[in-house]
């Protein structure tokens, strides 16, 4: 049997491998955060590695906090990372009737009960437990009450009859064997007094009906697994429910080891794309390496990830998010990216940008950039209008002596008909030798005049990209301007 398969009973009683089915189940109460994106990635990879199915479920039962913009943001983020589900998404709220049906089946089978305890009675039980300095474990008088003694018109909740003896063991793919004494699991609510299902019930019903075999999620859900198994085990004799295999992944912390927050870079996936200029393949690679590894490999392609990924290589300790490492990784993927694709991304950040010129410029622009924003910033000089706006450092370079050099450069380059990087470099090097100057003494004021900045791609590439007429016009404008002026 493959490591990613689970056994399913056949007609002769022999268990055969059951195809792997994973799911990502976000609550649409906000953006798709970085931890959720990694959970989606691990589920997607595990399914792909084992030739299984990866499903998406929107857990929208919290109607007060679930919003359409949040749902759209989740779908948008997953599309950007190419982590859409293999089938149309399931919406949990639409399945409320099915959730209630299971709760009533559990009552009929003696595995759940109607509890008529009031809020005041519950509060009194909690207060007594606190007074006696013991954990609160509900012991409802309605657990084993005779049906004839139940009121007919009082509100009630439906509670599971949690096992009280023995223990429950989970052989977790990440955490290993984890055991909880059953006496620690209380009779939690399945169906509220208004007939709506709780999260605990809805999750397991949906997982079973969707055929989910592997539940891979954050380790903050580990305690929930023991409660959810109480429902699954109770339903096993009613509908043949089977336990899924669990994999509880440690959460992501900030670079300082503290819980991940916005100050560490805990933004929505859309912010990494729109605000930070990160490429999806870079974020994919970075999230993959947050808590999972394959030897010393850092740059891992999508195909390699599918081939190599398994839960056995997920660490037990929280991983640390480092924005600088993500940006450095992004720089690698920028250099590998298609120039026309990058030109499109940059054009969306520069008003009136010429995509053909951006594509032509991309090989020299992307060498130094770590994100799309830096690419756009470094490309802005191509579309600047005269008079050129100078940075403070660039303006400081344009002294009277520098402007005299610019005038000489203008005269020399005006004679160049072949506007190629090689010939332009040869002409300026010859000029520097004639003047007894290092090439930098000419290149620095020339860069300021052409770009308005002190940093740019190679100066000869800049001349070629701007073209002969625009280059000479920018040089002439600064050569004749008073020192310190902005022209």
TrEMBL record:
Motif 'KMSKS' region per record, residues: 259-263
Binding site for ATP: 262
Location(s) in or outside the cell: Cytoplasm
GO molecular function: ATP binding; glutamate-tRNA ligase activity; tRNA binding; zinc ion binding
A single Gene Ontology CC term: cytosol
Record-linked InterPro entries: aa-tRNA-synth_I_cd-bd, aa-tRNA-synth_I_codon-bd_sub2, aa-tRNA-synth_I_CS, aa_tRNA-synth_I_cd-bd_sf, Glu-tRNA-ligase_bac/mito, Glu/Gln-tRNA-synth, Glu/Gln-tRNA-synth_Ib_cat-dom, GluQ/Sye
Gene3D superfamilies linked to this entry: 1.10.10.350, HUPs
NCBIfam families tied to this protein: gltX_bact
Protein family per UniProt: Belongs to the class-I aminoacyl-tRNA synthetase family. Glutamate--tRNA ligase type 1 subfamily.
Protein name: Glutamate--tRNA ligase
Chain's gene name: gltX
